[in-house]
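Homework help board

Subject: predicted structure for assignment chain

Our instructor gave us this sequence and asked us to write out the predicted structure in token form, then describe one feature. I got the tokens but I'm not sure how to describe them. Can anyone check?
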Amino acid sequence: MKGASTRIGNPALRQGLIVGIIFGVIGIVLDLISQFVGGGTILGVIQFVVAIVLFVSVGILTSQQTGKARTGALAGLITGFIGSVLSAVVTILILLLFADKIRQVDLAQVTSPLAQQLVTNQLIITLQIISFLVFIVLALAIGTVLGALGGLIGSRRATPSVKSSKQAT
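My token output:
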């Protein structure tokens, strides 16, 4: 079996896809729990902490393979993109399927009769799409920065053979 440093393909892309899918699935599960059970603030904090751990970890793993810190940043960017888009698309599809149920849960929290008339499926879907666009942009930015931080850590931990091949190129 070949070692991690001799695998074919771009390590940043490979690691970013794998960890991005993990990030997306975690996001989907937490979004579903939030939509149907509640506890959005706590689940948001959990998702943020998980994101930090995943972004730094993917940066470390990738840069250890290449010896370059910038591959950690690229892996963090890819992880943020894949995870946030996957989470957004699946959650919006589920939102479209269960819009009435989610609206009823939201209406139960509103006491004003005027506000109850304003809470529609279209409003809920529009607000969710806007929030996911913001989430995607933030995931890209935070993923890149934390991936770069992990890349700095991982490039220092790279094996001597990776460092010597990096200097030879």
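Reply (TA_rk): Your tokens look well-formed. For the description, you could write something like this. Helices lie at 11-36, 40-66, 69-97, 99-108, 113-118, 121-157, 160-168. That's the kind of observation they're looking for.
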